[in-house]
Design brief:
- Helices cover 35% and strands 22% of the residues.
- The protein is an alpha/beta fold.
- Strands 1, 2, 3, 4, 5, 14, 15 and 16 form an 8-stranded mixed sheet that branches.
- The structure holds N-(iminomethyl)-L-glutamic acid (NIG) and zinc ion (ZN).
- N-(iminomethyl)-L-glutamic acid binds next to helix 3.
- Its main location: cytoplasm.
- Belongs to the metallo-dependent hydrolases superfamily. HutI family.
- InterPro entries: Amidohydro-rel, HutI, Metal-dep_hydrolase_composite, Metal_Hydrolase.
Length: 410
């Protein structure tokens, strides 16, 4: 089916196929076309341009008068497969406990793992599908989903199988990441190496054999997995050709970035605490730094020093981190707004970070992340708005009129 979108007030993030990411000062530039058309055939963008050059023999015409079109958000870091919620821990934090104190009391990730282990595949699938549908209506058009709330061979496979079924049942591009090293299960409290051996010798061979995983992740942090643990797991994952996306520098800078860049990680995520050595290793790498401002907002921890990252000539991606503990929200519109308000990104930088750079952080810049001939027809039609900067400015409003994924209205 051919669809022609006309009278688009501004078509945002129009780029050539060769642009896979934008870095440093280039992030300040957001290429757009005013008074434009967009031509879609089946699931693909086939053309765009100024209205005076719009084709005139198309039956299926959608008038976008006063509205803008953006590429959909690319959310490169989520944990949307989880069971139940942790609103009691939220109240505990309001009353003064820290995230770390709650985790030390057996709450946190282990709390979610217990719930998930007790939840059936069907129930877990339904809860996760509801979250996926919610974020699609909020404009997310490509997403990464991690395991890591299973922490046993069976429960990790259950999570990854839920992600596989989501991939089969939804047309949105989904990448799945194995995060067996998310927390140390209580039964391994006195023998971390035994759990790492389980990850390396049982989980990794099984999940790769069943083709359940695209990337590998490790929570490299004090009290979770050390730099040495991380390196062991990365070495093992290399044998299966898995690239890494690593949780680093959320609370402490312990050398995770050095090891991640040495292993050519696709991304390093969180980075709330970032020192000059970390910046140095990032500058000499192809690794995408990923900031998760909704997590900082929710936990009240520092925001990733995004200005420092971009002003050092580096790229930056933005993602939601949707999970039950540190970020119970997958709203990428809020992520973009928080990046502007709290991390001092300009709207242009934030939109680049949440689209093309997010796509790079999932290795799918050739498919999504910009309005480009040949890419998937995944885009947001806004309500009538005065300018694209109105999206982060008007941070509490829903400014989305409709979302298209693979050329179909969600
Ligand atoms: N920090 C590690 N993992 C998640 C939070 C997990 C949880 O609290 O359930 C994050 O990215 O914030
Ligand atoms: Zn996370």
């Amino acid at each position: 089916m051919t669809q022609l979108f006309i009278n688009i007030k501004e078509l945002i993030q129009v780029r050539d196929l060769e642009v896979l990411k934008v870095s440093g000062t280039a992030m300040k530039i957001l290429p757009t076309l005013k008074n434009a058309f967009l031509l879609v055939e089946d699931n693909t963008i086939i053309d765009y341009g100024l209205m005076q050059n719009a084709p005139n023999s198309i039956d299926n015409v959608i008038d976008c008068n006063g509205k803008m079109i953006f590429p959909t958000w690319v959310d490169s870091h989520t944990h949307i497969v989880f069971a139940g919620n942790r609103e009691q821990e939220f109240v505990d934090r309001i009353k003064g406990l820290t995230y770390e104190e709650i985790a030390n009391k057996g709450g946190g990730i282990l709390n979610s793992a217990k719930k998930l282990q007790e939840t059936s595949f069907e129930d877990l699938y339904q809860q996760s599908a509801n979250r996926l549908e919610e974020v699609m209506t909020l404009g997310t058009g490509a997403i990464e989903i991690k395991s890591g709330y299973g922490l046993t061979v069976d429960a990790e496979i259950k999570m990854l199988s839920v992600i596989k079924k989501l991939k089969e049942n939804y047309s949105i591009p989904i990448k799945s990441t194995f995060l067996g090293a998310h927390a140390l299960p209580t039964e391994f409290k006195n023998n971390k190496q035994e759990y790492i051996d389980l990850i390396i010798n049982e989980m990794l061979p099984k999940i790769t054999k069943e083709n359940l995983v695209d990337f590998i992740d490790i929570f490299c942090e004090k009290g979770y997995f050390s730099v040495e643990d991380t390196e062991q797991i990365l070495e093992a994952a290399k044998k299966y050709g898995l690239r890494s996306k690593i949780h680093v520098n959320q609370f402490n800078s312990i050398g995770g970035i050095k090891i991640a860049t040495k292993h050519n990680a696709l991304s390093v995520d969180h980075l709330e605490i970032l020192n000059d050595d970390d910046l140095h290793y990032l500058k000499n790498s192809e690794t995408m730094p990923v900031a998760l401002p909704s997590c900082s907002f929710f936990l009240g921890i520092p925001y990733t020093p995004a200005r420092k990252i971009i002003d050092n000539g580096l790229p930056l991606a933005l993602a939601s981190d949707f999970n039950p503990g540190s970020t119970p929200s997958g709203n990428m519109n809020f992520v973009v707004a928080a990046a502007c308000i709290k991390m001092k990104l300009t709207p242009e930088e934030a939109i680049n970070a949440a689209t093309i750079n997010g796509a790079y952080a999932l290795n799918i810049s050739n498919k999504v992340g910009s309005i480009t001939r040949g890419k998937l027809a995944n885009f947001i039609i806004t309500k009538e708005i005065p300018s694209y900067g109105f999206i982060p400015y008007s941070f509490g409003s829903n400014l989305i009129d409709s979302v298209f994924i693979n050329g179909h209205k969600v």
